[in-house]
Amino acid sequence: MIHLFSDKKIKAFGLDISDVSIKAMQLDPKKDGFFPSAYASIGIAPNIITNHVIAKEDKLAEAITRAIAQARHINTKYVVANVPEAKSFVRILNINVAKESELDAAIPWELEQDIPVPIDQVYLDWQLIKQDKEHFTVLVTATPRDYVDSLVDVLKMAGLKPVALELESQATARALVRHTELNEAVLILDMSVMQTSFIIVNNGILEYTSSIPVAGNAFTESIARSLGVSTAEAEKIKRDSGLLADSKKGNIRQAMLPILDNIVDEIKNVARFYEEHGGMEKPISKIYLCGGTAKLSGMVDYISARLNLGAGKPLGPVTVGNNFVNICSKEQEAGLPIKNEEALEYTTAVGLALRGASYETN
Fold first, then answer.
1. CATH number, domain 205-320
2. How far, in Å, CA of 333 to CA of 343, rounded?
3. pTM for the predicted model, two decimal places
4. Which of 8, 29, 41, 164 is the most buried (most CB within 10 A)?
């Protein structure tokens, strides 16, 4: 988390910005929880953000303004926004110093050897995970200064007051991992339009994150090629049929499975790498799916079968994540204006909004 204000308690809304869309979400406090009082999702032109680089700041500011207007009931200028995984470096470091007060000086030196960007060109944030007699274990996030500065400028151009920027994976984990699961190791599979992210949260702390450029668009393009239809028609077929049925024009499942198998294989690789190199003290207990692609019919069942049947080591149950588990009770959820299936596309925005709902800066 990159803090931009200090010594204030304010209410802020969440703003999730990607290469293809902007999602806004405001949560207002209610008895025993929060209420999604304002939310909106809009698409943006493909040349505004290119490969996670803000190419047209003025156009992005205009798009943010449109998203806020569409949400209608956002009543604060304070915002918590996201930083894409592709623009950040997340590392767990074991540092041998005598006192915690020495970490600020030691972390840049240790991290400089482990990232491909000069240390004076990034903003650093770190969190102490544990300590023993020999060393401190810290989670460190580094984000290029030029991206952060550009994003802050855009938010201000849109008339907003940014109070913090946060990794997508941190916000996603905040939305999906229940308070009762903070002593478990949970893997989150975030399947969006452009990429699929793999997030491992252990003991309530983000300990691993990675992504591949394979997600919803790849399924759509494969269907379009296989069936000989337009991209727009392929997208509709994908959403209507998922993995459960075939179109009259051809075999959708056959077009999608090679791509999905690549994602499942990467889940296995991530779990294996984490077990071998992450110092994991407990096995992954469950897997949550989120993102718009997670809504496709048959997605959960297929991934679960591939991961937990056969000779390999099972990874725990696979379910669709619930964005409301840390917002309200199950009974209150029934009265919310947005249902969880729709809210799956807002997971990062929900996590950012949770951070901003009663934001207390350090």
1. 3.30.420.40
2. 12
3. 0.88
4. 164
